[in-house]
């Protein structure tokens, strides 16, 4: 069964003349890591807000685990779909990191001992143990984003939506985020990444959904999308250097420097 099924969803903001989403249809299977890409204003945020129930479609249907999302509250959907917002400052309201992380499971009514265990697990997973009693606002940008992720994964949602999780990050923080998301992928989570960060996309996503003017203009394996000049031109996406290099070297198409390295070393062995 498809984990998420979006059927002919269109949406127009009240104050807008044009549709932000037009007849969007797509399905996501359990365990996939899908990148939703496209220029600013192409409809990415509007689409993901439909998946977590923040927006309800004017027409069309969304099913999550086979159930009609329009019949569920945002809180009910949140048990299955965890949403990590773009700006972690908007998610932070507690006085300590520990309290911040406990808030979600506490609201969902998990038993106290269970919450303590889960909080310890995610503190360790996101490497925030030493900040347990720290005020969240005194964390760095990368740490705040890890906290935002921690406060969502602590409730163990099956689906995770990450909206621009690396905005303003330096290289090491991007690497950190790649590693964390990779671990979540390995645990079998279904991940939807909305990002301009092609380093993140190339390292994590296997499939890309490309949006333009509220419609999906391409949906397929990441490598196919990167090789489609028409799509790249229409969306101002740039091929990763690793892909260009692999073409020049005449080796299998690679998306990351590590893949290029493994390909060449693999050949040499
Ligand atoms: P993206 O996430 O790809 O940048 P959005 O989903 O935010 O795109 O926007 C899609 C379209 O909807 C754009 O034309 C944008 O101007 C419009 N839009 C987004 N949010 C609102 C809003 N709250 N009110 C009116 N129009 C909006």
Name its key features.
single chain, 269 residues, Rossmann fold, 3 domains, globular, binds adenosine-5'-diphosphate
Strand order of the largest sheet: 6-7-8-3-9-10
CATH architecture label of the largest domain? 3-Layer(aba) Sandwich
Order of helices and strands: EEEHEEHEHHHEHEHEEHHHH
Distance between the termini: 42 Å
What is the count of structural domains? Answer: 3
CATH superfamily of the largest domain: P-loop containing nucleotide triphosphate hydrolases
- What's the Cα radius of gyration? 19 Å
What does the model show?
The protein is an alpha/beta fold and 269 residues long. The protein has 11 helices and 10 strands. The strands form 2 sheets. It has a 6-stranded mixed β-sheet, with helices on both faces. The chain is globular. It starts with a strand and ends with a helix. The relative contact order is 0.15. Bound molecules: adenosine-5'-diphosphate.
Reconstruct the topology from this structure.
Blueprint (H helix, E strand, L loop, with lengths): L3 E8 L9 E8 L4 E5 L6 H8 L7 E6 L2 E2 L5 H5 L2 E4 L12 H11 L4 H14 L15 H13 L5 E5 L7 H16 L3 E5 L3 H7 L2 E6 L2 E7 H5 L2 H7 L5 H9 L7 H12 L1
Parallel strand pairs: 3-8, 3-9, 6-7, 7-8
Antiparallel strand pairs: 1-2, 1-4, 4-5, 9-10
């Amino acid at each position: 069964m498809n984990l998420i099924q979006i059927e002919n969803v269109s949406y127009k903001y009240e104050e807008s003349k044009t549709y932000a989403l037009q007849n969007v249809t797509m399905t996501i299977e359990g365990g996939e890591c899908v990148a939703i890409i496209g220029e600013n204003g192409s409809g990415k945020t509007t689409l993901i807000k439909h998946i977590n129930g923040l927006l309800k479609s004017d027409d069309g249907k969304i099913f999550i685990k086979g159930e009609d999302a329009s019949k569920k509250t945002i809180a009910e959907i949140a048990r299955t779909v965890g949403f990590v917002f773009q700006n972690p400052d908007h998610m932070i309201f507690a006085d300590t990191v520990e309290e911040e992380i406990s808030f979600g499971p506490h609201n969902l009514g998990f038993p106290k001992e269970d919450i303590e265990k889960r909080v310890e697990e995610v503190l360790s997973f996101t490497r925030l143990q030493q900040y347990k009693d720290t005020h969240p606002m005194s964390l760095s940008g990368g740490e705040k984003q890890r906290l935002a992720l921690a406060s969502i994964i602590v409730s163990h949602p099956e689906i995770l939506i990450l909206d621009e999780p690396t905005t303003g990050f330096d290289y090491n923080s991007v690497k950190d985020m790649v590693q964390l998301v990779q671990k979540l992928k390995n645990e079998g989570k279904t991940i939807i990444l909305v990002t301009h960060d092609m380093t993140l996309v190339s390292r994590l996503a296997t499939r890309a959904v490309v949006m333009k003017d509220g419609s999906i203009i391409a949906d397929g394996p990441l490598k196919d999308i990167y090789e489609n000049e028409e799509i790249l031109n229409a969306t101002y996406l740039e091929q990763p250097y690793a892909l260009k290099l692999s073409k020049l070297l005449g080796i299998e198409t690679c998306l990351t420097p590590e893949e290029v390295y493994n390909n060449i070393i693999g050949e040499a062995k």
